[in-house]
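Job type: complex structure
Entries:
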Amino acid sequence: MKKNYLDWGELYYSLKKTLLIMRIAIVLLLVGFLQTHANDAYAQKTRLSVSFTNTQLAKVLDKIENESEFFFLYNEKLIDANRKVSIDAKDERIDEVLKTLFAGTDVEYTITDRKIILAPAFLSESQQQGKKVDGKVTDKSGASLPGATVVVKGTTTGVITDNDGKFSLALSAEAKVLVFSFVGMKTQEFAVEGKATFNVKLEEETVGIEEVVAIGYGTTRKSDLTGSVGLVKGSDMKSEGVSNVISSLQGKIAGVSIESATGKPGAETKVLIRGVGSFGNSAPLYLVDGIPVAGISNIPASDIETMNILKDASAAAIYGSRAANGVVLITTKNGSLGAPKIQFDATFGIQNIVKKWDVLNAEEWATVSNAAHDAAGLKRLDIANNPQSLGVGTNWQDAVFRTAPIQQYHLGVSGADEVVKYSLTGSYNSQQGTIETTGYERYNIRLKTEVTKGILKFGETLMVTNEDWRNVPSGWGSRADAVGAATIMIPAFKIYNQNAVGGYDGASGPVVNVGNPMAQLNLERNTTNMFGIINNTFAELTFFEDIKYKLNIGYTQNFNNNGKYTYKYDVGTLYTNPTNNLFESKGQSKTLLIENTVNYNKKIDKHNIQALLGYTYQTYEYKNSSISDTNLPDGIFVMSAARGEPNITGTKTQNALVSILGRAIYSYDERYLATATFRRDGSSRFGDAQRFGVFPSVALGWNVNNESFFKELFLNNVFSALKLRGSFGVLGNQEINDYLYAASITGNRNYPIGVGQVKWSGAIQTSFATPDIKWETTKTYNAGLDMSLLNNRFNLTFDWFNKKTNDILLNVPIPLSAGSSVNPTVNAGTISNKGVEFGFNYKGTSGKLHYNVFGTATHVVNKVIELGTGTQQIFGGVPMLHGANTTVAQAGGELGEFYLRKVVGVFQTDEEVKAYSKNGKLIQPYAKAGDLKYLDSNGDGTINDLDRVKCGSPFPKFEFGFGFNGNFNNFDLSIYLQGVAGNKIYNGMRQELEGMTLEQNYSKTTLNAWTPQNTNTNIPRAVINDPNYNSYSSSRFLENGSYLRLKTLQIGYKLPQTVLHSIHVQNLRLFISADNLITITKYTGYNPDLGGQSSNILDRGVDFSSGSYPLSRTISFGIQVTL
Amino acid sequence: MSSCKNDVMELLNPNEITTQTFWKTESDALSALAACYSQLTVPEMWGDRGILIYNGRGDDFFIRNDMQQVYQASAFTNIPDNKEIAGLFSAAYRLIFMANQILDNISQIPNLSDEKIKAISGEAKFLRGLSYFTLVNNFGDVPLHLSVPKTKEDYFLKQSTQVEVWNQIKKDFKDASESLPIVYDAANVGRATKGAALAFLGKAYVYTKDWDAAIVSLLPLTKSPYSYTLVDNFGDNFTIAGENNKESIFAVQFKDEPSALYNANKAEQMFAPAEVKGWFEAFPTNKLFEAFQKEKTIDGKLDPRMYATLVWNYEGAIFYNKPFSTFSTPFPQFIAMFKKYQNYYLNNEVLGSKGTVTHSENDKRIMRYDYVLLMLAESYTQKNQMDGTTGANFYLSQIRKRANLDVTKTIPFNQTQMIEEIHHQYMLEFAREEQRFYDLRRWGLLKEEIVNSDKEGKEFYVTGKSDYFPIPQAEINSNPLIKQNSNW
């Protein structure tokens, strides 16, 4: 439950005598419940236990608000909130509690569903002078509002409504307009125009509009916001938390595209905000409580209060050179006013992979293999000679994949009083992988406190995270890793061999060197440990109420340890490792951030100014050393036992960023809004001449609903809010390696020389520097519309954007003949991303059912405007070992669109092959009946890479998500679906498995390969030397990537209050949850939501033949307890 | 403010020195030279991949299909997008880039004597020549980079004609031969000598059929001050013990280190049978097996070079200290396996000399005295000079004599017979030594010999296409000035 205390001290009038200034604290409930509909069931049903002795009334009311869904509305000057009360209520209804609290006072209370209005009884006694006008003030439901103020505009003349909401007021001749106001309600004005009676319905102030939004180096009211900011509350991330933080956001924020991490436990997720404007790192900038971090997958969802995604230039420009890919601001939870609250959550689940590849069994494999050899006129493999004798053989996928348990625990205590706010949490997460031997384990501790004393506020966030992985070893001999090997390993081979060193059997004979996947997983212990500390400490001084100076010191330190112990083994005849070997590497990174900011907030009449100036300095340093050695005795796993020759390496890298920044947010009369932001960054990654970059932005907003004409037209009966926004700005990107501007000399290029072959140390320049390298800059235009309808029940957001990235940092392929070992990084191109985003949310109620329906949709069009030399084509997307490129970036096209030879059919006869000719020359001279027919798109009479054509985009035309949350009595239900449409996926795994050109296992579909008897098929003939290149990268392996996924389905049950009371628990919820339950797709691979295996944007949409950890389906059970 | 901030951000790469601080001392130049030599040992050049690719297309070679693109290169089914061939192209140009750095920068080094500048430049030119030799031999017309690109535009060069490239190769070897020492002290054995430069210069002339110039370059190597001779036992040229022997003119040096100090030489593991932890990637065709048996020694036995080159199931055949009969035959259609360069006298190819998983340290002798002798014989034959101490027979007979063949048999040969005999001797002497395919091409015999063999993929050989590799697709894609070779 989140509270915002709004300062109403600036109300523009005062009432005589008692009401000089009104300061009323109200509570805004942000989640879960509907406040507008009368329903006394809650009050009847809810039972409270409250025990206080001689305590301020305000605290008691706070406590009740905290522990129930009730909230209080009252006029602070009429109700003595400082009065000391004592109460000892056990399991009592609210009216009984209130009766006790206000016994002996003149305060009366009105309970309407969860809303409780407090007003002094004396209001019923008329204290008005004169009688010219009268009337009644009610809320939307018709309930009277006692204590509402009615004043003559421009004067101090006014009254307060009585307990029935009635008032009467003498008016002078000058009185033209009456202003009706009540805390928590929208102020309304009515022209007097000779009317004598005013029956006024006040609408509740829109909750959403008054949300406070983190915008970087400060916050602003949502109504003042001019930029495009996506907001997710921690409470909305389904608190089962089985998925990692980011993947639970998939499809929930318009414009934010999230690809699942692979199924690898603890993997980072790929996030793209508003398309891809960069070849390099397209990940957004992540900040946790203001501290930049590399990723956020290791932060427990239950630690997150809010997550704000800054999408447009206006919002993100304050982060200048790092903001072009968007900024994700995470605010962690802190305590809220009241007694300590203890929260305990636990989840248990099981994971399974959703789909296995349908591959051949041993007998089937031998049959296909023999056919492929016969067709090529080559000798059959010895092991395949007698297919029937092989039987089913080994099912390698069954051996490798398993049902894996997952468990998570989270424990936290939080609380606050006027001086100290605190929150301390600890989490433990243990997850086995669905692949044998793999797993993940994580511990988190987080402490956040904030102390206020006078003008000084001091606070910190401290997060300590320890993570351990057992990884899938990288494939033996640069071949397939265990996942890939499980599909291509010939089923005729066995898993175990007791007589072999290491105990595993493997491939033998003239077949592809695939390492037995079970041997790979068990004979190589590949581990990663990450230990990280994130610390942010700040001190804030407030001067003259308006000026705040803040010093923020952030420090993060991460340690990573990688280990690899390889047992000695003989696996089949192809892999051998004669000694036990050990590799260990240790790395350490440090980030220091020092930020000085001054914030100025001032409201003068209708002018509201929020200004920020800052100076920041950030350094990063990474050091790494590794050692490897061989020949360890069995059973000993430490380096000093090694008896081989150690190999030691180490590297170090540093960078620095120095910035000045400023921002001004101005609003006039809550109608006209303007924001101007700028940041000047200096980065050590660039040479002298290009070191500094300036990133400005401006934005305008218009709260149309606050215009008088809007009210005069009574449009505010329809629109609770209507805002137009527009922004323009320039953002930067500096995500390139350090030191590129200087040519370095590469060492360790040694040669053995002399009679004894002694080391002759070699060092030389191996690549070209780009001394004039500079910032990548993105110009962004954004136009947005926010709308709330039906008394805030229906909210809509719509954004249009146009992002143009210039001087993209690009590894432009230069000719191999230039002799560089890597392509130089240069500024060479322009990419545009245009799109629209749409989000909606509807809160409704029907009887006892309270529900929320929400959804987002995003459409982004990406275009490469210019690239490299002009006609430059940059290829990527190599789908398999030594496979041919599948994607291209070139001017005029989409970034990384598929670019492939096009299959137009299967030759049914040799005559068809002969007929496919140009100028009497065969276009496919090596083809035979059953081979693929390729399109000779350039008409030159041969098929080669010049015949590649554009075949579609890896980027979805639409990404969408929609869901439903509802509760009925004590039950709640969440359903969330997410999907993409209009994209293609290149199925590299299928290419690997349907190729029939290598001595390995194949897909079941190859049983349907073309033969003279089986001609109605799109699988070409089996021929092992494949002279026609049927297995080459082509449109044959391109598939529709659209999908719709039931991502989350959760059913929860809250124990009734009566039961909770008897076990002294405030809240207890049980739930069952399913992740990735159903996926509807035509895609034939493991999963259409490809994990980010590669950071190269040209690899997007390519499902690699190896190395993809399949996504799992998780079914879990959880319990959440609040004490 | 910005000046102090600049200091904060003046972060030099702590891992590596940069060009601003390099090229200041003689030791900088020498370490650059070591890096050039080191490039010879990368897999794509004379490590495993290079060996397989240079040999693969010969009528004497079979490569199995698990390394698919190496296989395709050997079976004439490769396409321009073959990563292995691109690797060779790229590796050769990297060496050229490195050698050009030395040539461009050496004269700027203060206090370096002209003598040293000349010697170091000579080695750089030798290595550059070797690299262009590899390129022109495999790809035909290639771009000629003779200095380090200064601007972006310099990255892009159009192809020079084969003639131009050959002229540059000859110039580099000639310059090298004029500045390199005849011998090095013991600490520097293995570096390029004057003799090596002359031998490769001669080879360049032989490849361009300039027989007179070939003789001028090669003949001095047979005389003082050079002391090259054939070793008695042909097989000693392929063992670790026989490294840098009297017959070796230039060898790529490999060292067996488990650490990452040197490039790994996995060629021998590639060729070794499964039983000794090899990957049995390549086999000699039966055509080669039979070629060795065409002529018996004077005592009626098989050519000793056959025993040094191949191993098969003959009486008493021992391989890796085990009877040959205990080895499996994954490709029973081929009778023999390669023995040349294998570390067959160890128990296990993969264990290496250090007893850990590692790689062969067997040097690759890429220029030997026997090759010089055969080139001389060929050149004289082409000039129709067969007899006497200045004729083809004089040089050929040294080769035949070591092989214990009848040295008198070739005396009556006419030019045609002699050419055929020399072709035959090249085939036997240099089997698995990266010569066969190129020899057949320069003799115009590719089609005839490949079709007339048991080579896998021979049906895909196309005259005028398969003679050279295509220019790699990656070069075509990135360099608009490049034209693809014909028919690709």
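Summary: The two ends of chain A are 15 Å apart (CA to CA). DSSP finds 13 helices and 62 strands in chain A.
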